[in-house]
């Protein structure tokens, strides 16, 4: 007599196992897809926050100029790069409204004359490296552990300001003028270009602080200056910017570039 019961049980067991495998595969796919969607949403949110933070830094620079241009122009980043001999040189500083000191947060002013550096590239034949500080403190760069551009202590923003030596190009420019400008005055027009790079150190856990610090301390930020571009006739190579350095490490970041026309006026007698 043939035992059909054991045969049916075996077929049922195989069917159940196949269904379990299918359910597991579908479940894993759904989980993987949801995690991928979450990563996309998180990356989009981080990019939005980074872009907004860079814009805030630019807005503070404009307000700083407008508040000080008539009484303390040299005390502003724009005033510093407009000083004789500073054309084509890069002023860098950290935009750090929030700074951690001894586990406590302190609020900083936008720009401090004791906390910036004016630099150039170290060599025309090397893409990396900067000169000794031509003015200010060579170590006046952001510290990703302590200096933050938002109160959430998640975003770091470094800013560069230059009075460009490269030819002007047709692009949208923002005009900064002295208050109460006399239309009959002699007008001295200057160009200013600002680069603001914001990044999220916590979103790159595999990147060491020493690597980020190397980018911050050893890179210029403006690659449009004539001395920072590639020039095959002289053997000059293009610089590697802070943005490029951090991007190669895999750090989420956003860089905003704004160019301004500054009209410095002297009223006629």
From TrEMBL:
The chain crosses the membrane at residues 12-31. Keywords: Membrane, Transmembrane, Transmembrane helix. This is Pilus assembly protein PilX. The lineage of its organism: Bacteria, Pseudomonadati, Pseudomonadota, Gammaproteobacteria, Moraxellales.
């Amino acid at each position: 007599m043939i035992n059909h019961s054991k045969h049916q049980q075996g077929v049922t067991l195989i069917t159940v196992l196949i269904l379990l495998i299918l359910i597991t595969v579908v479940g894993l796919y759904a989980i993987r897809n949801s995690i991928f969607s979450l990563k996309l949403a998180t990356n989009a949110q981080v990019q939005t926050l980074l872009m907004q933070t860079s814009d805030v830094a630019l807005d503070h620079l404009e307000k700083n100029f407008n508040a000080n241009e008539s009484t303390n122009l040299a005390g502003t980043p724009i005033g510093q790069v407009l000083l004789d001999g500073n054309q084509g040189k890069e002023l860098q500083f950290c935009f750090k409204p929030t700074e951690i000191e001894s586990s406590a947060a302190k609020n900083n002013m936008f720009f401090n004359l004791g906390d910036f550096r004016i630099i150039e590239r170290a060599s025309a034949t090397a893409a990396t490296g900067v000169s000794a500080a031509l003015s200010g403190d060579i170590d006046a760069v952001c510290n990703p552990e302590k200096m933050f551009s938002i109160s959430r202590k998640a975003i770091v923003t470094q800013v560069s300001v230059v009075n460009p030596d490269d030819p002007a190009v047709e692009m949208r420019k923002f005009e900064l003028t002295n208050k109460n400008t006399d239309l009959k005055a002699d007008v001295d027009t200057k160009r200013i270009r600002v680069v603001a790079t914001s990044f999220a150190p916590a979103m790159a856990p595999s990147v060491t602080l020493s690597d980020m610090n190397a980018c911050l301390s050893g890179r210029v930020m403006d690659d449009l200056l004539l001395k920072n571009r590639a020039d095959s006739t002289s053997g000059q190579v293009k610089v590697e910017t802070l943005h490029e350095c951090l991007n190669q490490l895999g750090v989420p970041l956003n860089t905003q570039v704004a160019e301004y026309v500054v009209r410095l006026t002297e009223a006629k007698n």
